[in-house]
Protein backbone atom coordinates (compact mmCIF):
# COMPACT_ATOMS: atom_id res chain seq x y z
CA UNK A 1 0.00 0.00 0.00
CA UNK A 2 2.93 2.26 -0.79
CA UNK A 3 4.51 2.87 -4.18
CA UNK A 4 7.94 1.83 -2.96
CA UNK A 5 6.55 -1.57 -2.03
CA UNK A 6 3.99 -1.99 -4.80
CA UNK A 7 6.41 -1.49 -7.71
CA UNK A 8 8.76 -4.37 -6.86
CA UNK A 9 5.76 -6.61 -6.15
CA UNK A 10 4.40 -5.99 -9.64
CA UNK A 11 7.86 -6.57 -11.10
CA UNK A 12 8.12 -9.82 -9.17
CA UNK A 13 4.73 -10.96 -10.46
CA UNK A 14 5.91 -10.45 -14.01
CA UNK A 15 9.21 -12.19 -13.27
CA UNK A 16 7.52 -15.27 -11.81
CA UNK A 17 5.12 -15.39 -14.74
CA UNK A 18 8.11 -15.30 -17.04
CA UNK A 19 9.07 -18.70 -15.63
CA UNK A 20 5.74 -20.18 -16.70
CA UNK A 21 3.62 -19.65 -13.58
CA UNK A 22 0.08 -18.34 -13.50
CA UNK A 23 0.13 -15.18 -11.38
CA UNK A 24 -2.75 -13.27 -9.79
CA UNK A 25 -2.07 -9.75 -8.48
CA UNK A 26 -4.37 -8.40 -5.76
CA UNK A 27 -4.71 -4.60 -5.59
CA UNK A 28 -7.07 -1.91 -4.35
CA UNK A 29 -8.80 0.31 -6.97
CA UNK A 30 -6.64 3.43 -6.56
CA UNK A 31 -3.41 1.45 -6.66
CA UNK A 32 -4.66 -0.39 -9.72
CA UNK A 33 -5.48 2.92 -11.41
CA UNK A 34 -2.05 4.32 -10.59
CA UNK A 35 -0.41 1.34 -12.20
CA UNK A 36 -2.77 1.08 -15.14
CA UNK A 37 0.03 1.24 -17.74
CA UNK A 38 1.68 -1.76 -16.10
CA UNK A 39 -1.57 -3.66 -15.87
CA UNK A 40 -2.52 -2.86 -19.44
CA UNK A 41 0.91 -4.02 -20.54
CA UNK A 42 0.45 -7.19 -18.49
CA UNK A 43 -3.20 -7.73 -19.37
CA UNK A 44 -2.20 -9.98 -22.20
CA UNK A 45 -0.06 -11.65 -19.59
CA UNK A 46 -1.93 -11.92 -16.36
CA UNK A 47 -4.77 -11.53 -13.99
CA UNK A 48 -5.28 -8.72 -11.50
CA UNK A 49 -8.05 -8.40 -8.93
CA UNK A 50 -9.15 -5.27 -7.08
CA UNK A 51 -10.51 -5.26 -3.53
CA UNK A 52 -12.32 -2.23 -2.17
CA UNK A 53 -10.18 -0.56 0.53
CA UNK A 54 -12.06 -0.36 3.87
CA UNK A 55 -10.46 2.95 4.89
CA UNK A 56 -13.63 5.10 5.06
CA UNK A 57 -15.03 2.81 7.76
CA UNK A 58 -12.10 3.86 9.95
CA UNK A 59 -12.26 7.57 9.21
CA UNK A 60 -9.99 7.76 6.18
CA UNK A 61 -11.02 9.86 3.18
CA UNK A 62 -12.52 8.00 0.24
CA UNK A 63 -9.74 6.92 -2.14
CA UNK A 64 -6.95 7.16 0.46
CA UNK A 65 -5.32 3.83 -0.36
CA UNK A 66 -1.57 4.52 -0.23
CA UNK A 67 0.69 5.85 2.52
CA UNK A 68 1.69 8.87 0.44
CA UNK A 69 -1.97 9.91 0.37
CA UNK A 70 -2.18 10.11 4.19
CA UNK A 71 -1.64 13.83 4.81
CA UNK A 72 -2.86 13.82 8.43
CA UNK A 73 -0.41 11.91 10.64
CA UNK A 74 -3.22 11.11 13.07
CA UNK A 75 -4.62 8.83 10.36
CA UNK A 76 -1.49 6.68 10.02
CA UNK A 77 -2.66 4.09 12.56
CA UNK A 78 -6.21 3.91 11.09
CA UNK A 79 -4.64 3.46 7.65
CA UNK A 80 -2.75 0.36 8.79
CA UNK A 81 -5.81 -0.87 10.67
CA UNK A 82 -7.68 -0.66 7.37
CA UNK A 83 -4.97 -2.70 5.68
CA UNK A 84 -5.44 -5.42 8.28
CA UNK A 85 -9.16 -5.56 7.37
CA UNK A 86 -8.22 -6.79 3.88
CA UNK A 87 -7.54 -10.23 5.37
CA UNK A 88 -11.18 -11.33 5.15
CA UNK A 89 -11.76 -10.50 1.45
CA UNK A 90 -8.38 -11.99 0.52
CA UNK A 91 -9.18 -15.22 2.31
CA UNK A 92 -12.64 -15.41 0.72
CA UNK A 93 -11.11 -14.81 -2.70
CA UNK A 94 -8.50 -17.56 -2.27
CA UNK A 95 -11.15 -20.01 -1.07
CA UNK A 96 -13.34 -19.19 -4.08
CA UNK A 97 -10.72 -20.22 -6.61
CA UNK A 98 -11.25 -23.54 -8.41
CA UNK A 99 -7.61 -24.41 -7.69
CA UNK A 100 -5.77 -23.48 -4.53
CA UNK A 101 -2.68 -21.35 -5.21
CA UNK A 102 0.69 -22.98 -4.78
CA UNK A 103 1.99 -19.95 -2.94
CA UNK A 104 1.07 -16.52 -1.57
CA UNK A 105 3.70 -13.79 -1.94
CA UNK A 106 3.14 -10.87 0.42
CA UNK A 107 4.90 -7.59 1.03
CA UNK A 108 6.87 -7.45 4.27
CA UNK A 109 4.58 -4.71 5.58
CA UNK A 110 1.53 -6.94 5.09
CA UNK A 111 1.92 -9.35 8.03
CA UNK A 112 -1.85 -9.82 8.19
CA UNK A 113 -1.47 -12.21 5.24
CA UNK A 114 0.26 -14.73 7.53
CA UNK A 115 -3.03 -15.81 9.11
CA UNK A 116 -4.74 -15.96 5.72
CA UNK A 117 -2.09 -18.27 4.26
CA UNK A 118 -2.14 -20.48 7.35
CA UNK A 119 -5.94 -20.85 7.34
CA UNK A 120 -6.13 -21.51 3.60
CA UNK A 121 -3.19 -23.88 3.77
CA UNK A 122 -0.79 -22.36 1.25
CA UNK A 123 2.93 -21.56 1.60
CA UNK A 124 3.76 -17.89 2.12
CA UNK A 125 6.80 -16.00 0.91
CA UNK A 126 7.65 -12.46 2.05
CA UNK A 127 9.09 -9.85 -0.32
CA UNK A 128 11.22 -7.27 1.45
CA UNK A 129 11.24 -3.79 -0.07
CA UNK A 130 14.38 -2.40 1.66
CA UNK A 131 18.02 -3.28 1.05
CA UNK A 132 19.66 -6.32 2.63
CA UNK A 133 22.14 -3.88 4.23
CA UNK A 134 19.23 -2.27 6.08
CA UNK A 135 17.55 -5.57 6.98
CA UNK A 136 20.67 -7.09 8.52
CA UNK A 137 21.67 -3.88 10.30
CA UNK A 138 18.28 -3.40 11.96
CA UNK A 139 18.11 -7.09 12.90
CA UNK A 140 21.56 -7.02 14.52
CA UNK A 141 20.92 -3.74 16.31
CA UNK A 142 17.75 -5.11 17.89
CA UNK A 143 19.26 -8.53 18.64
CA UNK A 144 22.29 -7.06 20.46
CA UNK A 145 20.27 -4.43 22.36
CA UNK A 146 22.07 -1.47 20.77
CA UNK A 147 18.92 0.66 20.69
CA UNK A 148 18.29 0.16 24.41
CA UNK A 149 21.84 1.08 25.41
CA UNK A 150 21.87 4.38 23.53
CA UNK A 151 21.62 7.42 25.78
CA UNK A 152 19.63 9.38 23.19
CA UNK A 153 18.24 9.21 19.67
CA UNK A 154 21.28 10.98 18.16
CA UNK A 155 24.07 9.17 20.03
CA UNK A 156 26.29 7.32 17.50
CA UNK A 157 27.10 3.62 17.84
CA UNK A 158 28.38 0.82 15.61
CA UNK A 159 26.19 -1.88 14.09
CA UNK A 160 27.33 -5.08 15.86
CA UNK A 161 28.33 -8.30 14.09
CA UNK A 162 28.17 -6.59 10.69
CA UNK A 163 30.22 -7.31 7.52
CA UNK A 164 31.46 -3.68 7.37
CA UNK A 165 31.95 -0.82 9.78
CA UNK A 166 28.69 1.13 10.00
CA UNK A 167 28.01 3.90 12.52
CA UNK A 168 24.38 4.87 13.08
CA UNK A 169 22.10 6.27 15.77
CA UNK A 170 18.60 5.41 16.94
CA UNK A 171 16.99 8.16 14.89
CA UNK A 172 18.52 7.04 11.59
CA UNK A 173 18.22 3.28 12.06
CA UNK A 174 14.96 2.39 13.80
CA UNK A 175 13.20 1.71 10.50
CA UNK A 176 9.47 1.28 9.97
CA UNK A 177 6.45 1.43 12.31
CA UNK A 178 8.06 3.94 14.66
CA UNK A 179 5.06 6.21 15.19
CA UNK A 180 3.39 6.05 18.62
CA UNK A 181 0.62 3.47 18.59
CA UNK A 182 2.26 1.31 15.90
CA UNK A 183 4.10 -1.08 18.20
CA UNK A 184 1.61 -3.85 17.41
CA UNK A 185 2.23 -3.54 13.67
CA UNK A 186 5.98 -3.79 14.17
CA UNK A 187 5.64 -6.84 16.41
CA UNK A 188 3.31 -8.60 13.97
CA UNK A 189 5.64 -7.79 11.06
CA UNK A 190 8.56 -9.50 12.81
CA UNK A 191 6.40 -12.49 13.74
CA UNK A 192 5.15 -12.87 10.15
CA UNK A 193 8.73 -12.76 8.88
CA UNK A 194 9.78 -15.45 11.36
CA UNK A 195 7.00 -17.83 10.24
CA UNK A 196 7.35 -17.29 6.47
CA UNK A 197 8.35 -20.18 4.21
CA UNK A 198 11.04 -18.03 2.63
CA UNK A 199 12.16 -14.45 2.12
CA UNK A 200 12.78 -12.54 -1.11
CA UNK A 201 14.98 -9.46 -1.30
CA UNK A 202 15.12 -7.00 -4.17
CA UNK A 203 18.88 -7.04 -4.68
CA UNK A 204 21.65 -9.19 -6.13
CA UNK A 205 24.82 -10.81 -4.85
CA UNK A 206 27.09 -8.43 -6.77
CA UNK A 207 25.55 -5.53 -4.88
CA UNK A 208 24.86 -6.98 -1.43
CA UNK A 209 26.07 -10.56 -1.33
CA UNK A 210 27.64 -10.37 2.15
CA UNK A 211 24.52 -8.77 3.61
CA UNK A 212 22.12 -11.26 2.01
CA UNK A 213 24.19 -14.16 3.36
CA UNK A 214 24.42 -12.54 6.77
CA UNK A 215 20.68 -11.94 6.90
CA UNK A 216 19.88 -15.54 5.95
CA UNK A 217 22.27 -16.84 8.60
CA UNK A 218 20.97 -14.47 11.27
CA UNK A 219 17.35 -15.51 10.72
CA UNK A 220 18.01 -19.13 9.86
CA UNK A 221 15.64 -18.75 6.90
CA UNK A 222 15.84 -19.32 3.16
CA UNK A 223 16.57 -15.98 1.49
CA UNK A 224 16.66 -15.43 -2.27
CA UNK A 225 18.12 -12.32 -3.90
CA UNK A 226 15.92 -11.91 -6.98
CA UNK A 227 16.69 -8.36 -8.10
CA UNK A 228 17.06 -5.76 -9.25
CA UNK A 229 13.37 -6.24 -10.05
CA UNK A 230 13.29 -2.92 -11.92
CA UNK A 231 15.20 -4.70 -14.71
CA UNK A 232 12.42 -7.26 -15.23
CA UNK A 233 11.00 -5.28 -18.14
CA UNK A 234 12.81 -2.26 -19.53
CA UNK A 235 10.85 -1.49 -22.68
CA UNK A 236 10.13 2.22 -23.15
CA UNK A 237 6.37 2.04 -22.55
CA UNK A 238 6.72 0.12 -19.30
CA UNK A 239 9.41 2.46 -17.94
CA UNK A 240 7.42 5.57 -18.86
CA UNK A 241 4.28 4.35 -17.06
CA UNK A 242 6.00 2.79 -14.08
CA UNK A 243 4.23 3.59 -10.82
CA UNK A 244 1.73 6.15 -12.07
CA UNK A 245 0.81 8.19 -15.12
CA UNK A 246 3.60 10.70 -15.67
CA UNK A 247 2.75 14.35 -15.15
CA UNK A 248 4.65 15.19 -18.34
CA UNK A 249 4.79 13.20 -21.56
CA UNK A 250 7.84 10.93 -21.52
CA UNK A 251 8.60 11.61 -25.18
CA UNK A 252 8.78 15.35 -24.46
CA UNK A 253 11.22 14.69 -21.61
CA UNK A 254 13.38 12.46 -23.78
CA UNK A 255 13.40 15.09 -26.54
CA UNK A 256 14.54 17.71 -24.05
CA UNK A 257 17.29 15.40 -22.82
CA UNK A 258 18.33 14.58 -26.37
CA UNK A 259 19.19 18.25 -26.87
CA UNK A 260 21.74 18.00 -24.06
CA UNK A 261 25.27 16.63 -24.51
CA UNK A 262 25.64 12.93 -23.76
CA UNK A 263 27.09 12.22 -20.31
CA UNK A 264 27.27 15.95 -19.67
CA UNK A 265 29.39 17.02 -16.72
CA UNK A 266 28.84 20.77 -16.93
CA UNK A 267 26.18 22.95 -15.38
CA UNK A 268 23.10 24.33 -17.08
CA UNK A 269 22.64 27.94 -16.11
CA UNK A 270 19.31 29.73 -16.34
CA UNK A 271 17.28 26.82 -17.68
CA UNK A 272 16.02 23.38 -16.85
CA UNK A 273 12.95 21.20 -17.02
CA UNK A 274 10.60 21.05 -14.03
CA UNK A 275 8.08 18.19 -13.75
CA UNK A 276 5.38 18.95 -11.21
CA UNK A 277 4.01 15.57 -10.22
CA UNK A 278 4.95 11.99 -11.03
CA UNK A 279 8.02 11.72 -13.27
CA UNK A 280 8.99 8.77 -15.50
CA UNK A 281 12.10 8.20 -13.42
CA UNK A 282 13.52 5.14 -15.17
CA UNK A 283 13.12 6.82 -18.55
CA UNK A 284 15.10 9.81 -17.30
CA UNK A 285 17.80 7.84 -15.51
CA UNK A 286 18.46 5.69 -18.57
CA UNK A 287 19.23 8.72 -20.75
CA UNK A 288 22.95 9.30 -21.44
CA UNK A 289 22.64 13.04 -20.68
CA UNK A 290 21.96 12.30 -17.00
CA UNK A 291 25.20 12.53 -15.01
CA UNK A 292 23.87 12.49 -11.44
CA UNK A 293 20.73 11.85 -9.42
CA UNK A 294 19.53 13.65 -6.28
CA UNK A 295 17.59 11.04 -4.30
CA UNK A 296 15.89 10.52 -0.95
CA UNK A 297 17.54 7.07 -0.93
CA UNK A 298 14.41 5.00 -1.22
CA UNK A 299 15.59 1.54 -2.24
CA UNK A 300 13.72 1.49 -5.56
CA UNK A 301 15.23 4.81 -6.65
CA UNK A 302 18.65 3.68 -5.49
CA UNK A 303 18.43 0.46 -7.50
CA UNK A 304 17.14 2.26 -10.58
CA UNK A 305 19.98 4.78 -10.55
CA UNK A 306 22.72 2.20 -10.00
CA UNK A 307 21.16 -0.05 -12.66
CA UNK A 308 21.78 2.75 -15.14
CA UNK A 309 25.25 3.55 -13.81
CA UNK A 310 24.24 6.98 -12.46
CA UNK A 311 26.03 8.32 -9.33
CA UNK A 312 23.78 9.53 -6.51
CA UNK A 313 23.56 12.67 -4.41
CA UNK A 314 21.92 11.37 -1.22
CA UNK A 315 19.28 13.26 0.77
CA UNK A 316 17.59 10.70 3.08
CA UNK A 317 14.44 11.50 5.04
CA UNK A 318 13.47 8.61 7.36
CA UNK A 319 12.90 4.84 7.76
CA UNK A 320 15.47 2.78 5.79
CA UNK A 321 16.88 5.71 3.84
CA UNK A 322 19.84 6.67 6.04
CA UNK A 323 21.13 3.09 6.02
CA UNK A 324 20.69 2.99 2.25
CA UNK A 325 22.77 6.16 2.10
CA UNK A 326 25.53 4.48 4.12
CA UNK A 327 25.55 1.56 1.68
CA UNK A 328 25.66 3.82 -1.38
CA UNK A 329 28.36 6.20 -0.11
CA UNK A 330 30.53 4.20 2.29
CA UNK A 331 30.32 0.67 0.90
CA UNK A 332 29.56 0.90 -2.82
CA UNK A 333 31.33 4.22 -3.39
CA UNK A 334 28.81 5.58 -5.88
CA UNK A 335 27.33 8.50 -3.96
CA UNK A 336 27.94 11.82 -2.24
CA UNK A 337 26.12 12.93 0.91
CA UNK A 338 24.11 16.14 0.75
CA UNK A 339 24.59 16.51 4.50
CA UNK A 340 21.28 15.61 6.13
CA UNK A 341 21.95 14.37 9.67
CA UNK A 342 18.54 14.06 11.32
CA UNK A 343 15.46 12.28 9.94
CA UNK A 344 12.39 14.34 9.21
CA UNK A 345 10.61 12.42 11.98
CA UNK A 346 13.19 13.66 14.51
CA UNK A 347 13.96 17.13 13.19
CA UNK A 348 12.11 18.69 16.12
CA UNK A 349 15.04 17.61 18.28
CA UNK A 350 17.16 20.28 16.57
CA UNK A 351 14.74 23.10 17.22
CA UNK A 352 11.52 22.21 19.04
CA UNK A 353 9.98 25.57 18.18
CA UNK A 354 10.56 25.37 14.44
CA UNK A 355 10.09 22.08 12.53
CA UNK A 356 11.36 23.72 9.31
CA UNK A 357 15.01 23.58 10.30
CA UNK A 358 17.35 23.90 7.32
CA UNK A 359 19.94 21.13 7.51
CA UNK A 360 21.46 21.69 4.05
CA UNK A 361 21.93 25.28 2.91
CA UNK A 362 22.44 26.81 -0.51
CA UNK A 363 26.23 26.80 -0.19
CA UNK A 364 26.12 23.15 0.86
CA UNK A 365 24.07 22.28 -2.22
CA UNK A 366 26.52 24.03 -4.51
CA UNK A 367 29.46 22.25 -2.89
CA UNK A 368 28.02 18.71 -3.00
CA UNK A 369 26.70 19.06 -6.57
CA UNK A 370 30.16 20.19 -7.66
CA UNK A 371 31.66 17.20 -5.85
CA UNK A 372 29.25 14.76 -7.49
CA UNK A 373 29.87 16.15 -11.00
CA UNK A 374 33.63 16.57 -10.49
CA UNK A 375 35.82 15.55 -13.42
CA UNK A 376 38.79 14.78 -11.17
CA UNK A 377 40.00 11.35 -10.01
CA UNK A 378 37.37 10.97 -7.27
CA UNK A 379 34.48 11.77 -9.60
CA UNK A 380 35.84 9.54 -12.34
CA UNK A 381 36.24 6.65 -9.90
CA UNK A 382 32.68 7.10 -8.66
CA UNK A 383 31.27 7.06 -12.19
CA UNK A 384 33.38 4.05 -13.15
CA UNK A 385 32.16 2.15 -10.09
CA UNK A 386 28.55 3.02 -10.90
CA UNK A 387 28.98 1.69 -14.45
CA UNK A 388 30.65 -1.45 -13.13
CA UNK A 389 27.76 -2.13 -10.76
CA UNK A 390 25.27 -1.49 -13.55
CA UNK A 391 26.89 -4.21 -15.67
CA UNK A 392 26.96 -6.58 -12.69
CA UNK A 393 23.27 -6.07 -12.01
CA UNK A 394 22.31 -6.75 -15.61
CA UNK A 395 24.41 -9.91 -15.49
CA UNK A 396 22.63 -11.00 -12.29
CA UNK A 397 19.18 -11.01 -13.91
CA UNK A 398 20.37 -12.51 -17.20
CA UNK A 399 19.81 -16.23 -17.71
CA UNK A 400 22.29 -18.11 -15.55
CA UNK A 401 23.04 -15.05 -13.41
CA UNK A 402 22.86 -15.10 -9.62
CA UNK A 403 19.37 -13.58 -9.36
CA UNK A 404 18.02 -15.71 -12.20
CA UNK A 405 19.26 -18.81 -10.39
CA UNK A 406 17.75 -17.63 -7.11
CA UNK A 407 14.36 -17.25 -8.80
CA UNK A 408 14.60 -20.81 -10.10
CA UNK A 409 15.65 -22.05 -6.66
CA UNK A 410 12.71 -20.24 -5.11
CA UNK A 411 10.34 -21.95 -7.56
CA UNK A 412 11.85 -25.33 -6.68
CA UNK A 413 11.29 -24.55 -3.02
CA UNK A 414 7.63 -23.76 -3.65
CA UNK A 415 7.22 -27.02 -5.55
CA UNK A 416 8.72 -28.91 -2.62
CA UNK A 417 6.24 -27.26 -0.27
CA UNK A 418 3.28 -28.03 -2.52
CA UNK A 419 2.03 -31.64 -2.07
CA UNK A 420 0.06 -31.69 -5.30
CA UNK A 421 3.18 -30.89 -7.32
CA UNK A 422 5.60 -33.39 -5.76
CA UNK A 423 6.15 -35.11 -9.10
CA UNK A 424 7.04 -31.90 -10.90
CA UNK A 425 10.53 -31.75 -12.38
CA UNK A 426 11.85 -28.25 -12.91
CA UNK A 427 14.87 -29.19 -14.96
CA UNK A 428 13.04 -28.17 -18.11
CA UNK A 429 12.74 -24.64 -16.72
CA UNK A 430 16.48 -24.24 -17.17
CA UNK A 431 15.87 -24.50 -20.92
CA UNK A 432 12.79 -22.28 -20.80
CA UNK A 433 10.35 -25.20 -21.13
CA UNK A 434 8.55 -25.82 -17.80
CA UNK A 435 7.01 -29.25 -17.19
CA UNK A 436 3.27 -29.19 -16.61
CA UNK A 437 2.24 -30.48 -13.20
CA UNK A 438 -1.08 -31.99 -14.25
CA UNK A 439 -0.41 -33.40 -17.71
CA UNK A 440 3.33 -33.96 -17.81
CA UNK A 441 3.61 -32.30 -21.20
CA UNK A 442 6.12 -29.56 -21.89
CA UNK A 443 5.51 -26.03 -23.05
CA UNK A 444 7.64 -25.16 -26.03
CA UNK A 445 10.17 -22.39 -25.35
CA UNK A 446 8.95 -18.97 -26.31
CA UNK A 447 10.52 -15.52 -26.03
CA UNK A 448 7.16 -14.17 -24.87
CA UNK A 449 6.28 -14.20 -21.19
CA UNK A 450 3.65 -16.78 -20.46
CA UNK A 451 0.82 -15.20 -18.55
CA UNK A 452 -2.62 -16.70 -18.49
CA UNK A 453 -5.93 -14.93 -18.06
CA UNK A 454 -9.18 -16.40 -16.94
CA UNK A 455 -12.43 -15.10 -15.61
CA UNK A 456 -13.50 -15.90 -12.09
CA UNK A 457 -17.02 -16.68 -11.00
CA UNK A 458 -18.56 -14.04 -8.77
CA UNK A 459 -17.13 -14.10 -5.27
CA UNK A 460 -19.28 -14.72 -2.21
CA UNK A 461 -20.99 -11.68 -0.75
CA UNK A 462 -18.45 -11.49 2.06
CA UNK A 463 -15.49 -11.46 -0.31
CA UNK A 464 -15.17 -7.67 -0.39
CA UNK A 465 -16.18 -7.60 -4.06
CA UNK A 466 -13.92 -8.01 -7.03
CA UNK A 467 -14.21 -4.65 -8.72
CA UNK A 468 -12.48 -5.49 -11.96
CA UNK A 469 -10.46 -8.25 -13.52
CA UNK A 470 -7.80 -7.23 -16.01
CA UNK A 471 -7.13 -9.45 -18.99
CA UNK A 472 -9.33 -10.91 -21.64
CA UNK A 473 -10.60 -14.46 -21.51
CA UNK A 474 -8.62 -16.75 -23.73
CA UNK A 475 -9.98 -19.69 -25.67
CA UNK A 476 -7.42 -22.01 -24.16
CA UNK A 477 -5.88 -21.45 -20.77
CA UNK A 478 -2.19 -22.18 -20.43
CA UNK A 479 -1.17 -24.91 -18.04
CA UNK A 480 1.66 -23.68 -15.84
CA UNK A 481 4.18 -24.99 -13.38
CA UNK A 482 2.69 -23.14 -10.41
CA UNK A 483 0.08 -20.59 -9.48
CA UNK A 484 0.89 -17.62 -7.30
CA UNK A 485 -1.15 -14.93 -5.62
CA UNK A 486 0.82 -11.71 -5.09
CA UNK A 487 -0.68 -9.34 -2.53
CA UNK A 488 0.22 -5.74 -1.88
Automatic annotation (TrEMBL):
Its EC number is 2.4.1.-. Residues 2-229 form the Glycosyltransferase N-terminal domain. It is an enzyme of class 2 (transferase). InterPro entries: Glyco_transf_N, UDP_glucos_trans, UDP_glycos_trans_CS. One of its GO terms (molecular function) is UDP-glucosyltransferase activity. Keywords: Glycosyltransferase, Transferase. Pfam families: Glyco_transf_N (PF26168), UDPGT (PF00201). Belongs to the UDP-glycosyltransferase family. This is Glycosyltransferase. It comes from Miscanthus lutarioriparius.
Amino acid sequence: MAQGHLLPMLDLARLIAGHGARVTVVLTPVNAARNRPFLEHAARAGLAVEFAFPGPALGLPEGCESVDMVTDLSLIVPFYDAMWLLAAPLEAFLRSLPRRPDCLVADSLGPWTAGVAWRVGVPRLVLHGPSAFYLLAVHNLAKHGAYDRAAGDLEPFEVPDFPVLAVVNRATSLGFFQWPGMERFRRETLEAEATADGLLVNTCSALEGAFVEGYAAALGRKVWAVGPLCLTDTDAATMAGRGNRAAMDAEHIVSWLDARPAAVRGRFKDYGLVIRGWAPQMTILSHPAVGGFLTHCGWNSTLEAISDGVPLLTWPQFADQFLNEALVVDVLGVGVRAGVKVPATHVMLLNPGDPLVVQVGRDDVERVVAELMDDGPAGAARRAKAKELAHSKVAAVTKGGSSDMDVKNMLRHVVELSPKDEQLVLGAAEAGAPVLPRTGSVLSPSPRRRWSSRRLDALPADAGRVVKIFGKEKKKELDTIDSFACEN
